[in-house]
Amino acid sequence: LAYLAWLLYAMRLRDLELEALVAQRTSEILAAQRHLQATISAIPDLMFEVDLDGRYYSTHSPREELLARSSKELLGRTVHDVMPQAQADRVLQALQEAHVKGWSMGAQICLPLQMGERWFELSVARKASATGEGPRFVVISRDVTDNKLAEEKVLQLAHFDALTGLPNRSLLADRCQQALGAAQRHGQCVALLFLDLDHFKNINDALGHRVGDALLCAVAQRLSGLLREQDTIARLGGDEFILVLPDTDAVGAAHVAEKLLRAADQPFDIDAHELVITPSMGIAMYPQDGKDFDTLSRCADAAMYIAKQGGRNHYRFFTAEMQADSDRSLLLENALRRALERNQLYLHYQPQVCVASGAIVGAEALLRWEHPELGRVSPAEFIPVAESSGMILPMGDWVLQTATRQLREWMDQGYALTMAVNVSLVQFRQADFPQRIGQILQDAGLPPHCLELELTEGVAMTDPALAIDTMDRLHQQGVLLSIDDFGTGYSSLNHLKKFKVYKLKIDQSFVRDIADDPDDRGIVSAIISMAQGMDMRTIAEGVETAEQLAFLQDHGCMEVQGYLFGRPMAARDFGALLQAGPLTMPVTA
Ligand code: C2E
Ligand code: MG
Ligand code: MG
Fold it and tell me: What is the model's pTM?
């Protein structure tokens, strides 16, 4: 009995120990569960347990609105029940991958939720499965919508023009490269078309940037509307557009260009303004003109430039001739970059002579460039290159400084004359141009009326308001202004009246044939009497013969310049000419 009692006691004791152990374990498990629950609650992402079919077994969501359905509705349903087919398939793929590898990361799906579209990135881990249970997975679904939007914004900024929403150059280059690849595989042509709006700057200046911008958007929209789906139109900035037309031959490209010209015929209604703007276009063809985007766009650009020179509002195809030109201008541009620092630039001076007295009353400074390999390059050739590359600015400053210093020297030797310096439109349009001139005169120690700036009629054409303002400022400073090559640029008299121009330089093309072309005689005499009526001086350039001089003299032209009196020459030779004193007029050839 005692043994039995002992046995019962021992058993009871063991039960108690076991109970205590169980209680301890249970509380440990509960604590771990609470810890896990708290951990899960702290996770800002959605969490699901699903099987290989995408059936939900449990869900966790910090924000119910991020779920495709309420948590309760999800349980027991599969991903295919609650999301669009494509997205559900994407989830199953990720589960399949995790089933094989143990995990899957990075799959992204976009879900249409009540709050709008949201992007989620999935991380999937395979769960060690309990016996008798199929494979289970824990899926963490992170809301990456904000990142995605930021990413899209960056993409948008990197590939699209902010103003018009059109592709930008980089996206276009990409699309063009694709089109060229396809064209090569299928033996097709591709056309690249450069389009630039004529005189767009006028609209911007006259009506303001807001109207200019609105016009650009309207143009972009109208042009896009004319294209096929496979075509791309991009804005390069400013008023420049570029079009890539895949599978298009020259005939097709010409057809598109005609269509674009016709479309531009219709005025644009912007802010109660009826605006008409014409395009100029250049076209390059793959494969004839180039094999890659850069070459083709350079060719199309060159053709567009020629189209503009040819009177605007039309299109030109790239030709082999332009090829030679553009190779040469590239060569010149590179060589010109070093010209100033390598002392390859110098000035020649050509005398300007008073018809009445034969005295040298002025000198025109003419820029010269001598390159060790290219030899002497004519300013008629390199000035346009310097202008389009912006190099004309430092070069122009150098010309002004050198010419004014030279004049100071001659004045110090007792000669009274003006120095005429050619000023390019690019220089003239600098906002601080009058100040620069003031500074240069001060540095040379010259009174302002000794300097005459030769402008071309283009000054008046592109931006009259700004031109008038700049000219007024220069005039107030006392600097003299003349219009070079007068008669070639269609200036209206009306414009001229507003300009503080003191002298007209009659273009040499009219002077050349004075002797036998009655039209030129008519033009020259008309210019002279017109100038007299407006109180302006006149100078004829390119005077080579005594006959020409005689005609000019008879018609009251005040000054002359040309080979008859002296070619452009080095400063030393000019000094010698000054020393020799006035020429006897009329000069006999
Ligand atoms: P431009 O200002 O009309 O200069 C007159 C041009 O006619 C000069 O050509 C001159 O050498 C040439 N010439 C002078 N007399 C005669 C003549 O009797 N017969 C003929 N056939 N030609 C004559 P150049 O020096 O080749 O300059 C060409 C153009 O380059 C200039 O035309 C001017 O527009 C531009 N240029 C020259 N130097 C400069 C400069 O420093 N700055 C700027 N922006 N342009 C310049
Ligand atoms: Mg000149
Ligand atoms: Mg001239």
Answer: 0.57
